Amino acid sequence: MSYAGPFNAMVIADGDGYPDLNEFTSAARTELRSLLAASA
């Protein structure tokens, strides 16, 4: 797969309804950084 241009991801969540929100955002951030490193 080839992609040129910006990549945007947005997550909207209710912190009260999803108590593990910090864990999710931390894992997502780690995975996105891994993708960025692999593409460099």
- End-to-end CA span: 15 Å
Q: Catalogue the unreliable spans.
A: none
Question: Which oligomeric state applies?
Answer: single chain
Largest sheet: none
Description:
The chain is elongated. The chain is an all-alpha fold and 40 residues long. 48% of the residues lie in helices and 0% in strands. It contains one helix and no strands. The protein has one helix at residues 21-39. The two termini are 15 Å apart.
Q: Mind sketching the topology for me?
A:
Layout: H1 21-39
Write a short abstract of this structure.
The protein has 40 residues and is mostly helical. It has one helix at residues 21-39. It is elongated, with a radius of gyration of 13 Å.
Q: Which features does this protein show?
A:
mainly alpha; 48% helix; 0% strand
